[in-house]
Queue: 2 jobs
Job 1
Amino acid sequence: MAATSENTVQVDKDKPKSPDKKKTKYDVIIIGAGPAGYTAGIYCARARHDTLILSGILPGGQLVNTTDVENYPGFAEGIMGPDLMIIMRKQTEKMGATIIDDEAVNVDFRHKPFKVLTASEEYEARAVIICTGADYRRLGLEGEKTFAGKGVSYCATCDGAFFRNQELVVSGGGDSAMEEATFLTKFASTVHVIHRRDKLRASKIMQERAFSNPKIKFHWNKEIEAISGNQKVQSVTLKDTKTGEKTTLNVGGVFVAIGHEPNSKIFQNQVELDAKGYVVLKNKTETSVKGVFAAGDVHDHTYRQAITAAGFGCMAAIDVDKYLAEN
Ligand code: NAP
């Protein structure tokens, strides 16, 4: 692959243009279509392996819910998360991978070829790469369920515009929370950041951006104890983590940004998972089952960046290439 002087992506012209979406047997099945899945797809298809990506219900993964990505190399002016994922998908398709927008609901890695099942189809492959990423962590409150879509949200980019001139709450102290809070000031009258400690986990630059925004108010050592309302969110009850004192904030929306959990449920009892549900890697990117590999946030709880997920996707595809050559 080479970049032209206009910086457009040029791919080999002799790759299959219209993959057969009825096929059920592949060399490699990649489960998930975030930066890890697409990168693995690009490398596997380019190595001439018959490659299927089951992209799940939300192709593009977490970046679809992100605004500006400023730290993905190659985009000096930054790029919107969804745009980056559209480019990756196009590049993967051009390389010849088949992408099906369906969700894997079950797998069977006990026998070869491996089986990956969707609600309507059973696929087989000689190798599998798990790239299912991670999903939003929930606060675990009753009101979170009751008011889901009625004022409780996990995605400022998706829902922020519904809350014009309202007071909002953002829960969390990491980069996601700072990003969400800053973004929401475009719409909200005030954004209250609720953090359970008195120090943020977010990076310096994200902290500075939030601290300098006059619409953001910080509430230190506080937890959301309850979300209340009538039809939709009207208030939150805060509990001081040091004194136990309770206070109420009248707000129209609650944005939860407290991290993520790996999407590994269907792999329970199939590959080894750690106590938090992350896929355990045994040999480079290979899992506890030979021929089954993993890449991205589903195994990586340390770096969790788009670029590292893409890097892991590349590594897993190279490991798959070697595995297929040897088996
Ligand atoms: P994170 O770094 O794990 O932060 C989660 C935050 O939520 C922490 O402040 C944590 O509090 C709090 N928290 C966790 N569980 C909680 C609970 N049950 N109740 C209340 N608070 C809770 O997650 P993240 O912010 O989603 O970031 C994940 C990764 O993505 C990071 O590596 C981050 O740098 C990256 N990221 C980067 C960007 C960017 O550069 N544009 C944007 C978003 C994310 P404690 O601090 O007390 O643990």
Note: The radius of gyration is 22 Å.
Job 2
Amino acid sequence: SDGIYILPELPYAYNALEPWMDEPTMRLHHDKHHAGYVRGVNKATEGIAKALENEDFSNVKHLERDLAFHGAGHILHTMFWNNMSPSQSNPSPELKKYILRDFGSFETFKKYFKAASKSVEASGWGILGYQPHADKLVVLQSEKHQNLSQWITYPILVIDVWEHAYYLKYQNRRGDFIDAFFNVIDWDNVSLRFSHMLSAFK
Ligand code: MN3
């Protein structure tokens, strides 16, 4: 499809993961469902470009929702396909070390990951993640991936817009608080985070 996000080919044949992942499901999941997310995130991205051009943000809530929903879907599915392979392999010594340290044993990790993934309410994802703040592996449930926005997008600039962040000074004027924030952003810090993430993920 046209746009900056592109549906990746599966890294193996549609039937390569048989019998565990059946070919009809893989075809439907990749060619229809994942393709739908790619179309959606491109459409939202175009909508945002248009809004920027016209400086018209009246539809921003809808655009942001679509950007998060379809963007997260695209990114997670891309990772999901690449997280699977027809050939057997093992965690690297480094990853193994973290799994043993953070979950006790590989078997316990498996039980935990399965239980967490199984009990995600309705649609969602089970996720093993690296938590750099604690240098630790964590297992997470994502009930609605749009609520978690675009996974693997590492934040480089954040603003807390819960009322507790501004109410004493700005009362209900959140916009004034956000204006004020732009006077105190440490762009050196933001730029440093950005360059770290570029070198980490490129
Ligand atoms: Mn899916």
Note: Helices lie at 23-54, 60-82, 93-103, 106-118, 167-170, 174-181, 187-201.
